[in-house]
Amino acid sequence: MTTRIDQSKANKVKVGTVLHKETLQRLKELAAREGRPISELIEEAVRKYERGEALERELRLKAFEQFRSIRFNISDEDFKAIMEEDYYDQ
Fold first, then answer.
1. HEC sequence for 21-73
2. CA 50, 75, 66: angle at the middle one, nearest 5?
3. Is 41 exposed, middle or buried (CB count within 10 Å of its CB: 0-12, 13-18, 19+)?
4. String of b and e for 3-20 (b: at least 16 CB within 10 Å)?
5. What CA–CA distance (Å, rounded) separates 63 from 57?
6. What is residue 52's predicted lDDT score, i.e. its pLDDT?
7. Are 74 and 68 in contact (CB under 8 A)?
8. Element spanning 82, H or E
9. C-alpha distance from residue 45 to each of 36, 49, 85, 89 (Å)
10. What is the pLDDT of residue 74?
11. pLDDT of residue 36
């Protein structure tokens, strides 16, 4: 008979990574304070990060629609190219 804990571990994979000592210490303290495993905090952070990226893109699209005008006449194709460009690679 498998328990709930056994089933939750079935879909998980152990990973190794390198963190700054201070980051790991803060992560451990947060996990202890909340009574949650570190892995749960990391999974939650990834989900929030993904939602944040989607929200940022949505906000950028809304800003574009709000400020786009005939005077600038930016085509949808040009806009998509601008949106796909990585600002930090410039």
1. HHHHHHHHHHHHHHCCCHHHHHHHHHHHHHHHHHHHHHHHHHHHHHHCCCCCC
2. 60
3. middle
4. eeeeeeeeeeeeeeeeee
5. 10
6. 78
7. yes
8. helix 76-84
9. 13, 6, 25, 24
10. 77
11. 96
Residue found by looking up tokens 């005939």 in the block:
70
Tokens at residue 55, please?
């929200």
Structure tokens at 62: 């809304």
d(CA 43, CA 47): 6
Name the stretches of the chain with pLDDT < 70. Answer: 1-8, 68-72, 87-90
Token pair listed for 46: 């990834």
- Angle 58-50-40 from CA coordinates, rounded to 5°: 150
**Tally of residues, the chain:** 90
